[in-house]
């Protein structure tokens, strides 16, 4: 359904060219949830924003590659078409901080109703109101008729996230991209939101790209997971395969670095160092500097992506060397 | 891989493709004007082509050199008393900048101290200082200036005093706000945990972090002081002869606007250039210090 | 006991009138070499407790005893002496390090404030020693905080907290702002420091698995009250309070075969401004009894057999009668 | 903050302002010299002094002044022999009208400038708006006033140069007075707009495919207006103060001119009434602003 | 009978009166406003001739024991704007009102009148305690004020809504803005009625704005055309101007009452008199809008054509200074008025002080705003005078005027409680005696001779300051629209007594 090929996003800033996304391939099928995990600054949000072409406005932006949604390359569409035909219709987004993604000075009803209004799906105030109530009901906001005229700050964090989710799926999009939809929420609320996602997906068959830095969240909701490091996908595959048999040293390290219940190790596995700068990333494997299995080859060239088993791909010289 | 450049969403403005040179954003105008001003201010008497108060009625209303009847001895022309405009503008630079300097140092000092105390300690001290600020702000600055000038007599000291009295609140309010937010920073709490005294916290943790703001405020104030002094001069309460200020020149020359447009225009342009320079510089500093804007 | 907190309360006046009962009667204790962890949803009062321990905020009621001494009754000198022994690390290293100071000043500041700077050479030696403890190169002294990565900055914060050789560290979410890969470095570092210097920790954290890994005892808070507390092994191994159970059950695990359980907890987090009557948890409790809505459940000791050396496992719930 | 508290603070400000103005205006000199003819004999002078209550100690004078002021009695103007309050009140509408018009002008410039500058940041428009706005801040308003009169009244004869006759006599003074704060206001709007345009909810709106004009002029602007509205009270006060000079230039029958001349004439009742009324106006406008930004910022309304 | 008044005219003045109550007049401007509404017994007309006005006739009887009696026959048929006829009672009331310090600032003007005797409704006699020549030359200090009206409505209402006998009836007034008047239908003087129905006097203090108002046609008459623009106005088509000498006499006052003041020496004062090129200042700084005078202006009482101003002669000035013992000159404070009260007064002061400095009277210029200037000009009531150098000053003597009153203020030495020398920094017993004498001399010719004698002494010894110039004032009006006859007298010189639409 969605296929991202060789996506590059380079930002021209004073301090130089930031290669925020540097050749990313992804695909999502209908009814599937793809998790993208990675450290802060690895380019997860940039990838999503590039797909929707919603990059920050300042500075120059260079986009490359292809983003095919049902065969149409979104990067080549005129802004107008993208805005009126795709965004909010075929692709919807839930942005990084759910708590700030509602406009504080308009009522929730207004905001949920706005896409309906401007996409011409509900003519007239009354019709729109009814539809908004339906949307809010669908995400289980209690007594939506009365809450409609409330402002976002009168809603709790969890409810705001439901509202945003409701807004996003109201147009029955093909694809939903969610950037860390639960990171700002407490675990008890997080569970509710993830259940909501699952239910919506079951009902509508929407494809979801879920970005998270929490390996636990990814494990519990995603069908497939891609691990991103310094602007590139280093490993991707079916969630079970990836968690049980991680092939990339980075994935392995991540999984070992987190404590688990009932496991009282003296020390956690710690990955030394920190991620490379994206202004001037290393030539070879970007993880090489922190990698326990580093070989001379790793510094020389970026490892090609190889498919270990069906759908499990990894970019690592170790894997290609056998 | 084909590389295409597309505009960021929503913006219909063209995206600049050229790589930015770091010199681009600099406040060139300010950098060009300010050294001139400083030269006039520091150079003092030595640079002046004529006596700024040397009046010669026979030379009244000489037009600028490039007009018919003008002479290069008086490049910008002369005023109604035959005084050289260029000389007076140069002499005025010094007064204007000195007034601004005093005003900034004193009002900035008082305002910063008051703002820091109010913001840091809060409570009654804050209430007291803020009431003083309110009182000050509720008296129109020019009314206060008028009355003060009537008490003290117009002149340099009065102008400085009036500006100080008017502007300390400006610093106090902004510094207070900044300190209240700085106070929330963990490092201030941690400094207390580390055992630092209040003075140390002010000196080491608050003041250095206020410097950017203060620098911006001070830069912007230069322009405001010049304009304020001009308003006082208009009412006859600004800088007085034999001191020269641009505001005074402007106010004096307004009656001859139709006879000798240059007499009012030249000091007016000096004011404009200086204010623009100081405002542009302040604006640039503000952007420069604001990490969110810096990336522009 | 090194630190004893008894029935601590903190009430803030709320903006529009009313009172925020941020902390509403919390007791716990921690001894040298031990780690006491506070967990709970956001807004339940964890940070407020930490700030009171650090004397940044004055409790509305209750007692804090350090080495048996009443901390709240200390005079100026006493407070200074207390501060020499109790230091802190906060969540966000970028806001807990003054961006205008060099690392050398950041580290030296506590020493200078207590007149322990000594001569230049001694001071420098001490600073280098601190850097070594937290695993930073000596060259770090002449740099500013922004020249470091997040993990390194947190190391600096830890080094600064250690400068006075304190006996207790208050750690408010010391790793939340850090990435997974960095988090382990800091956790390991803290554990190692505790072992080497016999420090006591009061740690606040969201990540339950991490808490289990790191702490010797744990307190689970809900809206300013302690819902359950006890030795980590007991609380995590056999949680008794429905809230603790919900918290543990909801936590996602990096295991595709495990699904966080839904339905252990209802609705949204309550408000500290208008807390529900009775057991504050009852509106969200799937197993609430009628009594829960009216009566505040007392703290109940669950392991009468356990020795005095370990903190008791206790919980406040009507179901446990 | 509760309104009662605000009102109290306002009262304190007004009272403080009255003390300050009272004291220093009394120090500024003897009004009798200006009031009486040159050759007035001492009996007349003494009599007038007593008549005006100027022979009392300062504190007593202040208390009398305060007691009367509470009932709206500021005494008779020494020069005009009319009640000072009446003199000022009569002129107040003109000054308020001018200040409001100037404020309206500045907002009418600043909002589109600020919004478009933020949207097209770094473009030629951004730079033009900045220079235009800053030009106003770089010229004394009396100079602007004179230039406007020369251009629009004398040269083009489009607009009247003086007085307060019809709406169009308001145009030039409002521009002369309102241009100065345009720069600061534009900056406030622009920087708030930049923040808002970068915000999650605008990005969210964009992701939902909302038209850009709605996002900018409705969603973003209402948020960006909040910081502007919060300081409108201060700007209004600045306009009131600036009116002192502009009223003279445009022969605008307002409070400013009256107070300026009253100061020169040591006409204390008028100075006091004028300043007190401006202070009251300042306090009221701030109160109004406080109340009104609840209207655009629901977070305040429900706090 | 003349055609009935029609239409409305708007004019603009640069200054505005503080009061419309004749007994509260405290500044020259007040006259131009009061004079439109109120009238006196006698006035000088446009041709500078004395003319009986509200008085049909009057006679001065020298009286016995030096107590003169003034016998006045009032004109009949004069009505106030409210319709009440003017009677002797009104004049009596006016006298009482004027001598009561509670309502009047001018009680001392009528202080020499002992008794007011009403003979009949239109005849009254004033009995003087002692001769007072100034009373007569002051146009007989009695304004016709409506007794019944004032007693009915009270002082405050009268101040708000004045009623007089003048050609213009009060309609409304907004301070700092405008005075609206209406031609009075019942005006007694049928030959001197305005031909315009409504008159609006706008107040526009800023010169350029007033000029703009005129140029754009918003007003058809302005006073005080800025000196720098007089030439331009004279050339404007359809516009007529008149330039009149104003009632103001400017001079530099010197302190001669302090023990160490260099100005105690007459040679220093003479040096100052020679040091300043007043003609150049008039020409350059005032664009010719000034008239030099020596002690008494042309056409004023006591004018002496033989008296010529000191010549500009810097050499002589330096020489005089040397003789006085100041070969290297000396420093002195010089006070300058900065509030624009007279056009160019600040610049003129600057220029004069620059001239003084050139010969060695080195001026340390101190600037004063109006209030401070007035205070400093006034002789300290107790203790020594505060003005310790040179002060630019001015006095108004009316037009054509009489210097007697002014001189008693600034030439006669200070006498506490005597009403003499309020603004005086001079002390010369001989001049004091002469001044006192002239006041008592009721015979006009003898008095004029006395004034000329004082003027000569004043000139010789440079007493009571150094006279410089009398400002010229230029009015401009649209000649193609209105006919206007200026009356060059202080009280009436902006009077619209004889104004009408241009008869085509
Ligand atoms: N507005 C911006 N200006 C400059 N650089 C940016 C901007 N946004 C992102 N970047 C850079 O782009 C890179 C990728 O950022 P991105 O936000 O995609 O990371 P992320 O994986 O989403 O991180 P996080 O987990 O913190 O959200 C980073 O190096 C970041 O510094
Ligand atoms: N200074 C204060 N004034 C008023 N209310 C406060 C103040 N500080 C904290 N609170 C309130 O007290 C409650 C507890 O806050 P606290 O910061 O202690 O929670 P926390 O458990 O640390 O939450 P988090 O996990 O989000 O850090 C919250 O409702 C908070 O809004
Ligand atoms: Mg992100
Ligand atoms: Mg917290």
Automatic annotation (TrEMBL), chain A:
Keyword Membrane listed: yes
What is an annotated GO biological process for this record, any one?
Answer: transmembrane transport
Under Gene3D superfamilies, the record lists:
P-loop containing nucleotide triphosphate hydrolases (3.40.50.300)
Tell me the membrane topology, using the record's own terms: Peripheral membrane protein
Question: What GO MF terms are annotated?
Answer: ATP binding; ATP hydrolysis activity
- Please list which residues make up the signal peptide: none
Q: Does the keyword Membrane apply?
A: yes
The record's similarity note reads:
Belongs to the ABC transporter superfamily.
NCBIfam families from the entry?
oligo_HPY
From the Swiss-Prot or TrEMBL record, give the protein name.
Answer: Dipeptide/oligopeptide/nickel ABC transporter ATP-binding protein
Name the source organism.
Answer: Cupriavidus nantongensis
UniProtKB/TrEMBL annotation, chain B:
Decide whether keyword Transmembrane is in the record. Answer: yes
UniProt keyword annotation of Hydrolase present: no
Enumerate the CDD domains for this protein: TM_PBP2
Q: Describe the location of the ABC transmembrane type-1 domain by residue ranges.
A: 93-282
Q: Name one GO cellular component term.
A: plasma membrane
Keywords attached to this entry: Cell membrane, Membrane, Transmembrane, Transmembrane helix, Transport
Q: Which InterPro entries match?
A: BP-dependent_transpt_permease (IPR050366), MetI-like (IPR000515), MetI-like_sf (IPR035906)
Q: Which GO terms describe its biological process?
A: transmembrane transport
Determine the domain of life of the protein's source. Bacteria
Membrane-traversing stretches: 26-48, 95-121, 142-167, 214-240, 260-285
Q: How does it sit in the membrane?
A: Multi-pass membrane protein
Question: Can you say where in the cell this protein is located?
Answer: Cell membrane
Q: Which family does it belong to?
A: Belongs to the binding-protein-dependent transport system permease family.
Question: What is this protein called in UniProt?
Answer: Peptide ABC transporter permease
Q: Which organism is it from?
A: Cupriavidus nantongensis
Automatic annotation (TrEMBL), chain C:
The keyword Transferase is annotated on this UniProt entry: no
Family as reported in the entry's similarity comment: Belongs to the ABC transporter superfamily.
**Annotated ranges, domain ABC transporter:** 3-248
Show the InterPro entries listed in the entry: AAA+_ATPase, ABC_transp_ATP-bind, ABC_transporter-like_ATP-bd, ABC_transporter-like_CS, Oligopep_ABC_C, P-loop_NTPase
An example of a Pfam family matching this protein is oligo_HPY
Q: Which UniProt keywords apply?
A: ATP-binding, Cell inner membrane, Cell membrane, Membrane, Nucleotide-binding, Transport
The GO annotation for biological process reads:
peptide transport; transmembrane transport
Species whose genome carries this gene? Cupriavidus nantongensis
Which GO terms fall under molecular function for this chain's record?
ATP binding; ATP hydrolysis activity
**SMART domains in the record, alphabetically?**
AAA (SM00382)
* Protein name as it appears in the record: Peptide ABC transporter substrate-binding protein
From TrEMBL, chain D:
Q: Where are the transmembrane segments?
A: 7-27, 98-120, 141-160, 166-183, 225-253, 273-296
Q: Where in the cell is it found?
A: Cell membrane
The question of whether Membrane is a record keyword is answered with yes
* A Pfam family reported for this protein in Swiss-Prot or TrEMBL: BPD_transp_1_N
> What is the superkingdom listed in this entry's lineage?
Bacteria
A GO molecular function held by the record: dipeptide transmembrane transporter activity
Q: Where this protein primarily resides, as one coarse class?
A: membrane
This entry carries the following GO cellular component terms, namely:
plasma membrane
| Lipid bilayer topology | Multi-pass membrane protein
**Residue ranges occupied by any ABC transmembrane type-1 domain in the UniProt entry:** 92-289
Q: Which UniProt keywords apply?
A: Cell membrane, Membrane, Transmembrane, Transmembrane helix, Transport
Q: Which family does it belong to?
A: Belongs to the binding-protein-dependent transport system permease family.
Query: What protein is this chain from?
Result: ABC transporter permease
Give the species this sequence originates from: Cupriavidus nantongensis
